[in-house]
Task: inverse folding
């Protein structure tokens, strides 16, 4: 087994070169989520870098927080399993997670999220955003969220996050964006995030954007491309949008089983949906303003 930590040249800093060795030692003795957290903390303290977790099943009793300048690299055989009702991974600004499996299926009554981003971190810009890639997130249909972006108050915001090659099965909501209905002077948003190559299966709600078409609590300008959504008899909505100028390109399978394929809320404005579902289909509902559908006839 080869375990390594990459960390940048810090020749002009005072951090000892042996800092990376402490992380390697921590990784070599990982037994559960708390050990993973210890390795992340050591990496962050030494300037950041890639913390590579080997294959194996690791119980998570407390949220694993990926700190700034750290990328959590999960082996394709790494499985993180929540044993308490907690978010499995939380990303901070300028952090990332890549690879592995989050497996929440066996936790009955799970109501948290596989990956969570809190807008209080004020994600935005090149060195203040986050990345999510090449990860499988599995939960029990009807419970919790695969991925959750949340803005609650003040100047909370989540922007410029890059997510690629996500495979999400189960959960109540597979991908969930939520801004709370605040009043000025608060101003919160979830804007300008890019998702590509997204696979969603057997969720109650596939992509669920719950905000507003304008500030002070907007969800705007988020792009979803290369999306595949497999609905089931339990699926209520494959795509729900309450926001503005979001773009979603999706193939929605078997919505004839009873799901609403697309639902654009009355507080939706100038969103664009490109899909296989015709606007004339009863599964396509547009209660909003100036939304555009590019779809089959």
Result:
């Amino acid at each position: 087994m080869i375990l390594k930590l990459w960390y940048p040249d810090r020749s002009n800093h005072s951090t000892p070169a042996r800092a990376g060795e402490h992380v390697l030692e921590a990784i070599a003795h990982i037994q559960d989520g708390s050990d993973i957290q210890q390795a992340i903390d050591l990496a962050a303290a030494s300037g950041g870098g890639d913390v590579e977790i080997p294959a194996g099943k690791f119980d998570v009793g407390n949220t694993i927080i990926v700190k700034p300048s750290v990328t959590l690299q999960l082996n394709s055989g790494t499985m993180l399993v929540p044993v308490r009702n907690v978010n499995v991974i939380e990303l901070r600004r300028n952090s990332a997670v890549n690879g592995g499996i989050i497996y929440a299926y066996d936790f009955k009554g799970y109501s948290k999220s596989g990956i969570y981003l809190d807008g209080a971190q004020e994600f935005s810009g090149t060195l203040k955003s986050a990345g999510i890639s090449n990860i499988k997130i599995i939960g029990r249909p009807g419970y919790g969220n695969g991925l959750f972006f949340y803005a609650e108050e003040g100047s909370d915001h989540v922007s410029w996050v890059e997510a690629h090659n996500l495979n999400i099965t189960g959960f109540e909501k597979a991908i969930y964006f939520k801004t709370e209905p605040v009043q000025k002077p608060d101003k919160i948003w979830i804007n300008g995030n890019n998702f590509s190559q997204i696979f969603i299966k057997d969720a109650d709600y596939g992509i669920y954007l719950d905000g507003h078409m304008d500030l002070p609590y907007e969800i705007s300008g988020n792009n979803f491309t290369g999306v595949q959504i497999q609905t089931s008899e339990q699926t209520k909505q494959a795509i729900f949008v309450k926001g503005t100028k979001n773009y979603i390109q999706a193939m929605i399978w078997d919505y004839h089983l009873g799901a609403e394929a697309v639902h654009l809320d009355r507080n939706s404005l100038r969103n664009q949906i490109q899909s296989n579902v015709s606007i004339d289909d009863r599964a396509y509902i547009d209660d909003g303003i100036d939304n555009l559908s590019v779809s089959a006839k």
